[in-house]
Amino acid sequence: MLGMLGMGPTELVIVGIVAVLLFGSKLPEVARSLGSSYRQFREGLSELQSQVQFDVHSPPPAPAPSAVHDEDDEEAYTEPAAPKFEPPPAESSDANC
Q1: CA 33 to CA 41: how far, in whole Å?
Q2: Which DSSP string do the residues of 16-78 spell out, in sequence order?
């Protein structure tokens, strides 16, 4: 883990000395608080990742059926009717002369 932070032993000693100078006797309490905050952050991040993976890999939920049947709903969802095809009137043979 130390390699991930890019800190060697010298840098860690310097950070430790600064922490002792800043926090003194409250250092264990501050470290405990930081550890707790980090753990909560990791748990939240893990939960978010699992929700995203679940949403990506699961099909969308089916729409819930309507519990109330309303006549206005039927009118709103009627299929559109196409106009009926009427062939043009046949021309009589007398009109062509």
Answers
A1: 12
A2: HHHHHHHHGGGHHHHHHHHHHHHHHHHHHHHHHHHHHHHHHHSPPPPPPPPSS--HHHHHHTP
| Mean pLDDT over the full length of the chain | 77
Dist. CA 58–CA 54, nearest whole Å: 6
The position carrying tokens 């043979």 is 93
Each residue's pLDDT tens digit, 13-47? 998 899 889 888 888 898 899 999 999 999 999 99
Q: Residue 31: which of 40, 42, 20 has the closest Cα?
A: 20
Q: Which residue has the tokens 């978010």?
A: 48
Dihedral sign, Cα of residue 29, residue 31, residue 37, residue 42: negative
